[in-house]
Design a protein that fits this description.
The structure holds 3 protein chains of 3 kinds.
Chain A: E1 2-7, E2 16-22, E3 25-30, H1 35-46, E4 49-50, E5 53-57, E6 63-68, E7 72-73, H2 77-85, E8 98-104, E9 107-111
Chain B: E1 2-8, H1 12-23, E2 29-32, E3 48-50, E4 59-60, H2 61-74, E5 78-80, E6 84-88, E7 93-98, E8 102-113, E9 117-119, E10 135-137, H3 138-146, E11 150-151, E12 155-159, H4 163-174, E13 178-184, H5 193-200, E14 207-209, E15 211-217, E16 224-229, E17 242-245, E18 248-251, E19 255-257, H6 260-265, E20 289-291, H7 302-322, E21 329-334, E22 338-342, E23 345-347, E24 354-360, E25 364-373, E26 376-386, E27 392-396, H8 398-403, E28 407-413
Parallel strand pairs in B: 1-2, 1-8, 2-5, 8-20, 10-18, 12-13, 12-18, 13-14, 21-28
Antiparallel strand pairs in B: 3-4, 6-7, 7-8, 9-19, 15-16, 16-17, 21-23, 22-24, 24-27, 25-26, 25-28
Chain C: E1 2-7, H1 11-20, E2 27-30, E3 47-48, H2 59-78, E4 82-83, E5 87-91, H3 94-110, E6 116-119, H4 120-126, E7 136-140, E8 144-146, H5 148-161, E9 165-167, E10 172-178, E11 181-186, E12 191-199, H6 205-212, E13 219-229, E14 240-243, E15 253-256, E16 262-265, E17 269-271, H7 280-291, E18 302-313, E19 319-322, E20 329-333, H8 339-354, H9 382-391, E21 398-400, E22 405-406, H10 407-415, H11 423-430, H12 443-453, E23 473-474
Parallel strand pairs in C: 1-2, 1-12, 2-9, 5-14, 12-20
Antiparallel strand pairs in C: 3-8, 4-8, 5-7, 6-7, 10-11, 11-12, 13-16, 13-17, 13-18, 15-16, 19-20, 21-22
Helix pairs in contact in C: 1-5, 1-8, 2-8, 10-12
The chains are: A alpha+beta, B alpha/beta, C alpha+beta.
Chain lengths: ~120, ~425, ~475
């Protein structure tokens, strides 16, 4: 049995939610004040996801802000940041333009600014 | 030069005000922006989380800005970039300067102030120590990293857990720096919960609540800092010092509306917000001069900035089209546990609901927000929780406004 | 080979250098830091003292009164901000009042004009924010304020315009005697030859004199901390307010700066090095003491705190003389308060009396005493502004929004005498970054402009000198 402690981020309440786990099974969730809190906690312990935002450089040195167009597994973040930083882009870039297809689990890397 | 509406600032406030003013029937609008690009500070806020309320999706700063830039361009609104406003007079004459236009004057029928805010600096805190390189406000560091692609340091300590500080903790980490600590003098963070979790916890960055930096070391470049725990009066407690070796200190210790032009024009300011005193149309004490966004009150969410700026845009347009209104204003004031209420005045002569924005001075659970006019309770709303870090809103329907007699005080109690 | 080399780019060295260029002499100033005005001259009260404080007969008394008279002339020629705002020594008890009479008598003996003891009614009329416990004051109408680093930079710049040389990052390590003078060798291996040397090295004057073989110059240091309030507080006080000195010690000053800020300080702590750390105790002391002078000080308007090291000699008077042991070495040391005020008068004396013994002083026919202000743009009329912007659009681009400084002025300061090569150098010349945002908005742009103009990478741009780099590398 393992107890994971989380702060719910769904609203300003910031409930301290505890999830009791046995292996990868959720045995019990306590401390939430609403169903959103329970769902948040469940997702966070099973497979937390994050959108990555960072910048990359064009070949001529311009800075392009980028993001993953959907959340990606938090556990893979460090590796994905390295992968993103290695992406080479060139020419005029439009907001929303896909700079790298299927970075992982179907998420693309897209530009967030016209550069 | 003469224009119907002149908007100072092309950040989220200025852009939203321009679009709404245009859509409300005034076509002769110009925006003056000091930076070479539109979008203001959003351009360097490359993280996501913007637009959840306004667009129903999580956008990055540049994406949010782009939506409004496109709307402004579609409408053919004239924009002067690299143009700094030097002064504004009480009869709405603007002096501006730019490399291409030189020094020029604009006579405006209405003016919308949308200059945003600035960060409080280290000096405002009187933190002892040396004054080496490597001390930055979080926003300055953000500009170096996200716009210039340059790193202001590698070993970082952050003072203040405001959202920009939290965001920069993650951002510096993603770029390979090590963030050793975030110190917060208050017993709670002033940042959003989401940012605590996703910017600090995700990267195992410790947050020291009730702590402050008590010394900065290093002659040429920062070499270390000392952080200490503080007591209830925010005074450092001797013996609680922790030393961190670092080359960079970031400050995220609050935002201050940039109201130097406003003040010089003679607009009445509110001591609590450090912005103009306005009615629900966002009109200031100078008729035909409106203010919106962070120059009026520091918002948590850009979505609220857009919402507020649309109000200013709409009423600036009405001012140009219909002229000055006769007002029947009542005063709003902050009562128990409330630090300010905006607007500070309500014109009872106008139709429609009024959304009140306010901040609380402390965290309260299961509390009641009350609007009192003398002895009379105009409204009472129950809330599960209110926190100082997040702005509260209450919608005041027209029929409740009718009940206000003299003034209205907003209080919040257990 | 220079006729005269001045060691130390503080206000004393600067004023001497400028005075030297009035004559047909080959002169140069060496400074150990990356820029001039980096020691006490950048961090002091900026007070132009009337001259009632120094004991009659001392060098301090002599040069103070004379310097007070010269300052407005120098400030006008060099376009340095100066204001004859008057000063008040405030008394809070009967004992203080007695001291004021002593000070007045002393001042009159020193030749200070217009001294007057005023009633508390008059005092509150002049300065309504003084604590109501005040009982009277000594009013000195000739008291003033000046921008200390502005004066230093301008005097050196003007001297350079008139032909003087400047070597920065030149810290004297050793000195070789030569047949007709000295060779100065710096810590980084540069050399300069001089027939005559003026030691105006401030806190380091003792060390420099020793390098020449003169061990009689004994210098101590006193740290003074200050708190600076935003210009929003302009008018809180308009005159320089001193507390009456008493057995209980010295109070702090509350005074305006020439730029409209309010300055509180200084403290006085003995130090044994040039460490300009501000301390918790020091800052608290300033606040406590300032509150005994004025009510309702707008401390919420604090924008920065800083400290400077004031050098003093064991004689407790200025040392201004040719070394008794080393011919050709003139020591100008221990120039503590009222050193800033005295600097122009000291320079006149050093050049026209001491140097004149070594050289025949022939007039420099090309000498011009004038220097244009570094931040001049906003002072122009609209028409001139537009003519300039048409010629150079950089003057239409405001970089520092708080102080309204244009890119054109920054570029000019980087290339004119003495060149600004660091972010702080730009700040001291133009006030860019000195306003309420403290460089939050403009520092990245100023760094960029410096890199572009000096043909360097951003990582090579320093805040204030060696190893104070602002940027450490690129993002990944």
């Amino acid at each position: 049995m393992e107890v994971k402690k989380l702060i719910c981020v769904e609203c300003p309440m910031g409930c301290n939610v505890e999830v009791v786990m046995e292996g990868s099974d959720i045995k019990n969730v306590t401390g939430f004040s609403c169903v959103r809190g329970k769902n948040y906690a469940t997702a966070e312990v099973v497979n937390p996801l994050r959108v990555i935002t960072t910048t990359i450089k064009t070949l001529d040195g311009r800075i392009v802000p980028v993001k993953t167009d959907m959340p990606v597994p938090k556990k893979d973040m460090a590796a994905l940041i390295e992968k993103i930083k290695a992406v080479k882009v060139d020419g005029q870039i439009k907001v929303g333009q896909i700079l790298y297809k299927d970075l992982c689990i179907g998420a693309n890397l897209i530009a967030t600014k016209n550069c | 030069m003469k224009h119907d509406i002149v908007i100072i600032g092309a950040g989220p406030a200025g852009l939203a005000a321009a679009c709404q003013a245009y859509d409300s029937g005034v076509k002769d609008i110009v925006i003056l922006e000091r930076e070479p690009h539109l979008g203001g500070i959003l351009n360097q806020c490359i993280h996501n989380g913007f637009g959840l309320k306004r667009f129903g999706q999580s956008l990055t700063g540049p994406e949010y800005a782009q939506r409004y830039i496109d709307m402004v361009l579609e409408r053919g609104i004239k924009v002067y970039t690299e143009t700094t406003v030097l002064s504004l007079t009480d009869n709405k004459v603007i002096t501006a300067i730019s490399p291409t236009e030189g020094l020029f004057y604009i006579e405006a029928k209405a003016v919308i102030l949308a200059m945003g805010c600035r960060e409080r600096s280290r000096g405002a805190l009187n933190i002892p120590g040396t004054r080496p390189a490597g001390v930055y406000s979080a926003g300055t560091a953000q500009k170096y990293v996200n716009i210039f692609g340059r790193m202001p340091g590698k070993e970082v300590v952050i003072l203040g857990s405001g959202d920009i500080g939290l965001i920069m903790a993650r951002r510096m980490t993603v770029e390979g720096a090590r963030v050793h600590a975030v110190a917060e003098i208050m017993p709670h963070s002033s940042g959003l919960k989401r940012n605590i979790v996703q910017c600090l916890d995700d990267f195992d960055i410790p947050l020291y609540l009730n702590h402050t930096i008590t010394k900065i070391e290093g002659k040429d470049r920062v070499e270390g800092v000392v952080i200490s725990q503080v007591d209830q009066n925010k005074k450092p407690i001797l013996g609680t010092e922790k030393h961190f070796k670092c080359d960079t200190v970031l400050f995220s210790v609050g935002l201050i509306p940039e109201n130097e032009l406003t003040k010089k024009a003679g607009v009445t300011l509110d001591r609590a917000t450090r912005g103009a005193v306005v009615d629900q149309t966002r009109e200031t004490s100078i008729s035909g001069v409106f203010a919106c966004g962070n120059v009026l009150q520091v918002h948590d969410l850009v979505d609220y900035v857009s919402e507020e700026s649309a109000i200013a845009g709409r009423f600036a347009a009405e001012y140009v089209l219909n002229g000055k209104r006769d007002k029947q204003t009542v005063k709003l004031s902050a009562g128990e546990n409330v630090s300010y209420v905006l607007p500070q005045q309500i014109d009872k002569g106008l139709d429609g609901n009024v959304k009140l924005f306010f901040r609380v001075t402390k965290t309260l659970n299961n509390c009641t927000i009350r609007g009192l006019s003398g002895e009379k309770e105009v409204f009472a709303i129950k809330k599960r929780v209110v926190v100082p870090g997040e702005m509260e809103t209450v919608i005041l329907p027209k029929e409740k406004i009718e009940l206000i007699d003299g003034g209205l005080t907003v209080t919040i109690c257990d | 080979m220079f006729d005269v080399v001045v060691i130390g780019g503080g206000v004393v060295g600067a004023c001497i250098l400028r005075t030297l260029t009035r004559y047909d002499l080959k002169v140069c100033l060496v400074e150990k830091q990356a820029d001039v005005s980096m020691g006490a001259s950048r961090a002091n009260s900026g007070v132009v003292h009337a001259g009632y404080d120094a004991m009659p007969g001392t060098l301090k008394a002599k040069f103070n009164v004379e310097g007070n008279r010269l300052m407005p002339v120098w400030a006008k020629e060099l376009n340095v901000k100066y204001k004859n705002n008057g000063s008040l020594v405030v008394a809070f008890c009967d004992e203080d009042l007695e001291t004021l009479h002593d000070l007045k008598a002393r001042g009159e003996k020193n030749g200070v004009p217009g001294l007057e003891i005023i009633s508390k009614e008059r005092l509150f009329e002049l300065e309504p924010n003084i604590c109501k416990t005040a009982v009277g004051a000594l009013y000195a109408p000739t008291g003033g304020i000046v921008c200390p680093y502005g004066l230093t930079v301008a005097a050196i710049g003007n001297a350079m315009d008139n032909g003087a040389g400047l070597l920065t990052n030149f810290e004297v390590a050793s000195v070789d005697r030569t047949a007709d003078g000295f060779t100065l060798i710096s810590t980084n291996g540069q050399t300069v030859q001089a027939r005559l040397v003026i030691n105006a090295a401030g806190y380091n004057a003792g060390r420099v004199a020793s390098a020449f073989g003169d061990d009689t110059v004994k210098i101590g240091g006193r740290k003074g901390e200050y708190i600076l309030l935003d210009r929003e507080s302009e008018g809180f006080v308009t005159r320089t307010l001193f507390c009456t000195p008493s057995k209980k010690g010295k109070g702090v000053l509350v005074l305006p700066t020439v730029d409209g800020n309010i300055l509180l300080g200084p403290t006085a702590t003995e130090v044994s090095d040039e460490d300009t750390t501000t301390t918790k105790d020091g800052l608290e002391e300033i606040i406590t003491k300032a509150k005994t002078v004025c009510d309702n000080i707008p401390l919420y308007n604090a924008i920065t705190s800083f400290s400077g090291i004031r050098a003093y000699s064991d004689r407790h008077d200025f040392i201004i003389e040719e070394s008794a042991f080393i011919k050709g070495l003139i020591n100008v040391a221990g120039i503590e308060s009222p050193g800033l005020t005295s600097a122009p008068a000291i320079a006149e004396y050093v050049v026209n009396q001491l140097i004149a013994r070594h050289f025949e002083l022939k007039e420099n026919k090309n000498y011009s005493p004038y220097r244009e202000k570094d931040s001049f743009f906003m002072g122009l009329c609209d028409e001139d502004k537009n003519t300039l912007i048409k010629k150079n659009p950089q003057f239409g681009r405001i970089v520092c929004r708080c102080e309204q400084i244009t890119e054109g002025e920054i570029v000019r300061a980087i290339h004119q005498n003495p060149p600004a090569t660091t972010v702080d150098g730009v700040k001291r010349r133009l006030r860019a970054g000195m306003g309420r945002c403290q460089g939050g908005f403009c520092q990245p742009y100023i760094t960029q402009i410096l890199a572009r103009e000096l043909n360097k990478d951003l990582t090579e741009i320093e805040k204030s000198g060696l190893k104070s780099n602002l940027i450490v590398g690129d993002t990944k």
